Amino acid sequence: MAITVETVSKERPHPIVRAEPFFLSLLVGASAFAPVTQTTSSTALNVETAKGPYGSEIGAQAPLGFFDPFGITSGADQEKFDHYRWVELKHGRIAMLAVVGYLVTYAGIRFPGAGDIPSGFAALDALPGQVVAQMGFTFFLMEAANSKAPGTYNGFEPEFMGDFRNGALDFGWDKQSDEWKRKKRAIELNNGRAAQMGILGLMVHDKLGNLPDILPWQS
């Protein structure tokens, strides 16, 4: 009796066939992050109605609108809100200067005579006392000169809290439209918000000691 044995040949799938499930998984994963078009007004972001009385203020813009998750401005009147906005604007301006100063000194650029002072937190212990005193005096003069009281200098009346032209620096601001001014103020506010996050990140990584991994161009 003859016994025949059949062998099953297992062919290797074509590379394209094997790669197909991988790319399908990528497409499915990417679809989770794709923007979804809102078709109903109930789920769309409504700045005016869903975000309170300050939804139309400068800085309340897409995609978050008026973002106040902790309800800090809840029940605040216009004067209180303007104070909060001024505090945010001031912190943003300081943060923008801080980011630029941090990156410049990190790159090795120094004032004459300060070449041996390190960058970052290490500079605090290396600064001479005279430099610290000069910095404090400069901060005091800036606070005194940039007064919030209108008409303090040259009869100047600021348009908003933080308007520190003081009747001297204008750069054509008064000749621009209200829409242009609002756009520029929103740009400054958002750049300040980004700078606050930026300088916080630099400070954290400075303390962690892994800043050279992020900024490898240290001089």
Notes on the protein architecture:
The chain is mainly α and 219 residues long. Helix content is 49%, strand content 0%. The chain contains seven helices and no strands. It has helices at 15-31, 47-50, 78-106, 122-126, 129-145, 178-208, 211-214. Helix 3 crosses helix 6 (178-208). The longest helix has 31 residues, at 178-208. Residues 1-50 have low confidence and may be disordered.
Q: Roughly what is the average pLDDT, rounded to an integer? A: 76
Helix content: 40-55%
Weakly predicted, low-confidence segments = 1-50
Radius of gyration: 29 Å
Secondary-structure-based class equals mainly alpha
Distance between the termini: 87 Å
Overall strand count: 0
Largest sheet data: none
The secondary-structure element order is HHHHHHH
Q: Count of DSSP helices? A: 7
Question: Which descriptors apply to this entry?
Answer:
mainly alpha; 219 residues
List the helices and strands and how they pair.
Layout: H1 15-31, H2 47-50, H3 78-106, H4 122-126, H5 129-145, H6 178-208, H7 211-214
Summary, kept brief:
By secondary structure, this protein is mainly alpha-helical.
